[in-house]
Amino acid sequence: MNASPELKKQIKQMLVENLMLQLTAEEIRDDQPLFGPDGIGLDSVDALQLVVALEKNYGLKIPDPEMARGVLKDVNSIAQAVALNPPK
Amino acid sequence: MSQRIILITGANGALGRALTQTFLAGSPDDVIWLGVHHRRDHADALAAAHPGRCRVVPLDVTDAGDWKAAVAEILAAHSRLDVLVNNAGTHDDALLAQMKSESWTGVRSVNLDGVFHGCQAVMPAMISQRGGRIINIASLSALLPPAGQTNYAAAKAGVLALTSSLAKEVARMGITVNAVCPGYVDTEALAGMDAVARQRAVSQIPMRRFGRPEEVAEAVRFLACAQAGYITGSALKIDGGIF
Questions:
Q1: Quick check: B127 and A55 CB within 8 A?
Q2: Buried b (16+ CB within 10 A) or exposed e, B95-111
Q3: Model-level ipTM above the cut of 0.90
């Protein structure tokens, strides 16, 4: 399932607001890594906040670090996980 | 927001009662949840005396499932949890050479593991609300470990390390994590001391008296207040000047 551009936009906005990033939602590419040297500079504490925000906003539970590594790769992977996990 | 939701563990003991009374007196709006395990008579009396402001919740701090249930109950009632005071504690002093392994594990389990479980249980709510206060009741024994308390001193020193590390993890989320280190305070912990031991202890204290639970509680109340928002990762000694 392909996530909609609108959902990706919402996720970028959530990243900027929740993590108080010093960049705008428009500056984040869909496939830009969130972590690592080529990424937007998130760290493990940001990941923790992100996990809580995704559960709160989309009901997406990320119970273990392995799943977190897969889901929190970039905006595309987050949007994909959210789209596959419709609100109950 | 004027109303704060506060959870105090070990609320049936002398320090737990003093904490509750101090928070009650400090703000007319705060709601205080009293975590109790083995005994609950004093906590029930406080809840009866302050209906709507004090509520009792069963909570064995060593049990992650108990924490989950207690926090879920609080969030179901208020949708938030602003302050956690990890106050539950126990001691079982013995020289290490004679200490039973159950004594080591039991003291560590309540005093250190309990703090871990508590912090973990409240973290999603505090992260989600982007704010919270955690105050851990450590001990002067963490800083000046006496003989006969390897279990207790090590557990409390662990609480200080946990406090400092967690404070760094959650600072940017508006959550502060601090510890207080009471010295000799007149609670059940000192009830077993005979007159000679008490006199010897008092003679080591520059103020020449034991602390009162209310004096510890006031420090905790301050660390929980909005004005203490820039204090995190600290360990405040409350000891009559022993150091």
A1: no
A2: eeeebeeebbebbbbbb
A3: no
